[in-house]
Amino acid sequence: MHNIEARIPEEYLNIIRFVLVCIDPKLATPTRLKAFAKENFMDDGQWNFLRGSESGFPMLANLLTVKYKQISPMDF
User: Fold this and answer.
1) What is the pLDDT of residues 21-60, one digit of tens each?
2) How many CB atoms lie within 10 A of CB 24?
3) Which candidate, 5, 17, 24, 49, has a CA 20 to 30 Å from the CA of 11?
């Protein structure tokens, strides 16, 4: 994620916002997402962390044309 941010020209960084969508709502509680953001220096307001319901993510993935598959209990 920081690699993506590093490729953005500096003059655009103050107007761009990043959105990270967690696809496992059981794992991604608001508390865990907040801790993840802080641990990874992504808590400055430029990054937004979203989580949804198990039934809602397939619809979002379809809208974004993103394919995903669970490969282990914690990895997709």
Assistant:
1) 887 777 888 899 999 999 999 988 889 998 877 777 778 8
2) 14
3) 49
Q: What is the 3-state secondary structure (H, E, C) of the chain?
A: CHHHHHCCCHHHHCCCCEEEEECCCCCCCHHHHHHHHHHCCCCCCCEEEEECCCCCHHHHHHHCCCCCCCCCCCCC
Nearest of 47, 26, 67, 23 to residue 36 by alpha carbon: 47
Query: d(Cα 51, Cα 36) in Å, to the nearest integer?
Result: 13
Structure tokens at 35: 């801790």
For residue range 4-15, what is the model confidence (pLDDT) as tens digits?
A: 888 999 899 889
Does the reported pTM lie above 0.70? no
Spans of all domains in the chain: 2-63
